[in-house]
Amino acid sequence: MTDTRLLPPTAEGIAEAARLLAAGGLVALPTETVYGLAGDARDDRAVARIFEAKGRPQFNPLIVHLPDLEAARRYARFDDEALRLAEAFWPGPLTLVLPLGDTPVSPLVSAGLSTVAIRVPAHPLAQQLLRAFGGPLAAPSANPSGRVSPTRPEHVLDGLSGRIEAVLDGGTCGVGVESTILAPGEPPLLLRPGGLPAEALEECLGRPLVAGGSADRPSAPGQLASHYAPEAPVRLGATEARPGESWIGFGKLGGPQNLSPSGDLVEAAANLFHFLREGGPRGAAHRGGACARAGSRPRDQRPPPPRRSPPALTTAATGCPPPSLMSRSIGRREIHDGHGAGRGQPVDARPFTSGLRPRAGAALSPPGARRGSRSGRGRGSPPDGRSPCRWPA
User: How far is CA 52 from CA 111, 138, 144, 145, 223, in A?
Assistant: First the structure.
């Protein structure tokens, strides 16, 4: 039995989180993107526990989090292009996949590959914890594998209470979607769209990105066939809710919940995962025992993750959230119109608000509905609207 504690965002809470990590424990920490499930990246047992707690396949690599570029250069090899990217966008929601450096991490982190995914988060609590801990932290999203990523501490507790030592309470994550993952090289490969827009990367590199990655042999997180998926199937292109569905709106197409009444893409991205969780009757997306709070029930008494289909979720929008944001975030469990570049094809890096017809956005289909066969690959990520390096605290 693991008594999961909610630690306050204070010096004492950070010190306790660092102590737990040093002892081989797992702590969920806030970042500007989503909450990450952190463990010592040098400790085989701690890393193995991350996979166990999430139910994550061990061939799926993890991201190593470090406080700054200087620390990152000990664990990965940076060429001139990688340095330029790191200096432009770190700290922030960019993960770089680079050759392993001279200082080792657990081979479980890289899933036996010769590369490692590295990120320097911008969230103040993540920065303070990394410096208090004094080492690299492997930290995938702090949720059961394949499910919607957590953007609030209660999301973490809903999925992982009783499986991890603690959650460091940082409130709501500002960006709300995962980091963008890029493998520099010729050509530069966009391995996962995320919180940093592709056009900002292309401007920095001076050439277009190419969509890359493989679900059969992932080189970075977020490449499996089903990922970031809610419990109900998704119906895109919805203009109204069908019987048994719950409707999430955007802009002028309201609905009971609205990602952004003003049509702001940044606000919509920040709300997306939370609304996908809450889209049905309250708790439907994670009903069935995932709401156990700290230490309230021994691990061996907790019911398994729910497998039954909850009420379907319908999401509607005009022009956006764009298909790349929605289809990547719902794990390709959707019916949609096939926007986005395929693997090995140039990425359309225009901002999401350009080149999109006004249309309905997305929906979770009724349980049992036939799902679309085309997966689609995202175009990029919602732009910050101010500067690619200014991320919400």
Answer: 14, 14, 10, 10, 19
Rounded CA gap, 55 and 40, in Å?
Answer: 18
CB contact at 8 A, 63 and 119: yes
Residue 153's Cβ-side half-sphere holds a number of Cα atoms within 13 Å equal to 17
Pair 313, 235: CB distance under 8 Å? no
Strand partners, 312: 245
Question: Pairing relation of β-strands 362-363 and 312-315?
Answer: antiparallel
184 contacts 96 by C-beta, under 8 angstroms: yes
Rounded to 10 deg, the angle between the 80-89 and 198-205 helix axes is 130
Burial (CB < 10 A; 0-12, 13-18, 19+), residue 190, is buried
- Is the pTM higher than 0.70? The answer reads no
Tens of pLDDT along 138-182? 999 999 987 889 999 999 999 999 999 999 999 999 999 999 999
Q: Where are the alpha helices (DSSP H) in 207-291?
A: 265-278
40-61 confidence digits (pLDDT tens): 999 999 999 999 999 988 888 9
Q: What Rg value do the Cα atoms of the chain yield, rounded?
A: 19
What DSSP designation does 303 have? P
Q: What are phi and psi of 357, to 5 degrees?
A: -70, 145
Q: Do 93 and 196 meet the contact criterion of CB atoms below 8 Å apart?
A: yes
